[in-house]
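We were asked to recover a plausible sequence for a given structure. The inputs and outputs are reproduced exactly as logged, with field labels preserved.

PROBLEM: sequence recovery
POSITIONS: 166
GIVEN STRUCTURE:
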C-alpha cells in the first residue's frame, strides 16, 4: 500500500506549486517584455514621460525583486539547509556502517539484529532527505515569490488600456 502520509506528499505539493508559479511567472514576463518592447519601439528615440517612468520603474522593480529573492534564499539556507545536509551526511555514514556490520555478521541472530539496525538507519536517511527536499522546495518558493509577484502584477497593469498621450 503506498505511503499517503502528509510527509510523503509535502515535497511533491511544494515542488508542484513552484513549477506552476514558475510557469505563470514566465508567461507574465513574456507578455510584459512584449508590451514594454512595443511601447519603446512605438516611440523610438522620443519616449513619452510615461514611457520614461516605465523604464525607470522596470529597473527599480528588478533590483528590488532580486534583492528580496536573494535575501529569502540566504535566510532559508542559513536556518535550515546546512543543518539538514549535515544530518543527512552523518546518517548516510551511519547507514553504511550498519550495512558493513550486517555484511560481517557471523550468526543468523547477529544478521537479524544488525539488519534491523541497518533498516532503522536507512529509514532515518530517507526521512532526512525528504525533509531536505521539502526545505529546498520552500527555498525555491520563497525565492520565486517576489519575482512572480512583480511579473504578474506588471502583466495585469500593462494590459490595462493606456490613457491617450496629451
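RECOVERED SEQUENCE:
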Amino acid at each position: 500500500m503506498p505511503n499517503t502520509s502528509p510527509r510523503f506528499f509535502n515535497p511533491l505539493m511544494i515542488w508542484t506549486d513552484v513549477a506552476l508559479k514558475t510557469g505563470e511567472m514566465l508567461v507574465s514576463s513574456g507578455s510584459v517584455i512584449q508590451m514594454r518592447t512595443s511601447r519603446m519601439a512605438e516611440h523610438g528615440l522620443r519616449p513619452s514621460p510615461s514611457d520614461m517612468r516605465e523604464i525607470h520603474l522596470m529597473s527599480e522593480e528588478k533590483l528590488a525583486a532580486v534583492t528580496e529573492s536573494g535575501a529569502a534564499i540566504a535566510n532559508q539556507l542559513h536556518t535550515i539547509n546546512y543543518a539538514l545536509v549535515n544530518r543527512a551526511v552523518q546518517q548516510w555514514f551511519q547507514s553504511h556502517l550498519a550495512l558493513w556490520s550486517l555484511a560481517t555478521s557471523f550468526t543468523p541472530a547477529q544478521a537479524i539484529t544488525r539488519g534491523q539496525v541497518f533498516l532503522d538507519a536507512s529509514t532515518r536517511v530517507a526521512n532526512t532527505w525528504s525533509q531536505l527536499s521539502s526545505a529546498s522546495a520552500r527555498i525555491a518558493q520563497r525565492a520565486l515569490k517576489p519575482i512572480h509577484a512583480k511579473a504578474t502584477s506588471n502583466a495585469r497593469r500593462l494590459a490595462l488600456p493606456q490613457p491617450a498621450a496629451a
